[in-house]
Amino acid sequence: ASPLPHSDSDNSLFQQLLSQPDIDIMVDQFTDLLRAAVRTRITNQPGLCKDCVTTKLSSPCPHSSVAVLFSGGLDSCVLAHLAAEQLPPGQPLHLLNVAFQQGGGGFDVPDRLTGIQAFKVRRRNRHLLVDTNSES
What we know:
The chain is flat. Helix 4 links the parallel strand 1 and strand 2 (about 95-100). It is of the alpha/beta class. Helix content is about 50%, strand content about 15%. The two termini are about 25 Å apart. It has 5 helices and 3 strands, in the order αααβαβαβ. The mean pLDDT is about 80.
């Protein structure tokens, strides 16, 4: 899947909107609230993966204990970015992509394709795209 068309007029409109003080303030407030919500979610979990929880490991484990259901859409990309900002250095973030088998036997549904495309753009050494296939 190829990216959506993008033009200089898109950037120009965005810059015009942000040049208006009220809109700029609202965008900043929204970003701060969303970042705080993600921070709360990340910091109020045990910091252990399911395996380390069952073995009663007392210190943070090196495995991923945070995941984002990742379709590759704008919302999951933003949440993945904000979650990665909040994680301790070296802790991986799992990006879970779920696809249901189609009539022809394949799993190449739109969310799978956009998830893979966004992962390639967003790829970091702490990110792992986990493909979860589920037969219908």
